Amino acid sequence: MSELTGKVALVTGGSRGIGAAVAKRLAASGATVALTYVQAEDRAKEVVKEIEADGGTAVALRSDLTEPEAAAAAVEQTVREFGRLDIVVNNAGFLTYGPLEQVSAEELDRVLAVDVRSVFLTAQAASRHLGEGGRIISVGSCFNGHVPGGNFVLQATAKSALVGLTKGLARELGPRGITATIVDPGPIDTDMNPADGETAEFQSGITALGRYGVAEDIAAAVVFLAGPGGRYITGTSIAVDGGYTV
């Protein structure tokens, strides 16, 4: 029996990159998975097909997390589909960088809506269904611990907000046996931040290992926290960043 057999997981932003890797790794560990997407319906359905081809169960749900009610709706739809909810992975977000003076109010609102508001509302809705052993895992950023230069103020602002949110969730939900944690990726090779992109050499150079990681590195950490190994870990962040913050 796999360590997550019988569990139901919701992964936001699960159609590509880190989210897709997390969804597939959770399913391979025995969980039933609901994953959300905004526009990439074909890619989301392909992730579902891959999970089903390997004997797992999954469903893709369209959810635009810039819409105020979308996060709670995704939680409720997951529970209607599978009857329960045990694991929430808040992965959806934007990789945004650029000079401070070029950040518009609209861009600020959009990033905070997905990276902060939706996480809060997802956790709020999920708390009504999570029981003993429940997990809320958010994908943060290495910028929580190390802002290497200019142009990252919006990203650092949004992801750092997850720290206080996660500590608050850990305290409030801990008495019910529910944990809340963050996985902070460093430079990860995805289509949002490719290992051959314009800032790749700079990012790789900051890491202790001198290279990018892959989405499966983050997925492995998420599944560890979701399983028995994560039962006494809460209110904290785990860096999976190749030594970016050393």
From TrEMBL:
For this protein, the record's SUPFAM superfamilies field holds: NAD(P)-binding Rossmann-fold domains
Q: Which residues cross the membrane?
A: none
EC number of the protein: 1.1.1.-
**A GO molecular function for this record?**
oxidoreductase activity
Q: Does the keyword Metal-binding apply?
A: no
Alphabetically sorted, this entry's keywords are:
Oxidoreductase
Q: Where is the Ketoreductase domain?
A: 7-191
- Gene3D superfamilies from the UniProt entry: NAD(P)-binding Rossmann-like Domain
The family database entries (Pfam families) matched by this protein are listed as: adh_short_C2
| Family as reported in the entry's similarity comment | Belongs to the short-chain dehydrogenases/reductases (SDR) family.
The protein, known as:
SDR family NAD(P)-dependent oxidoreductase
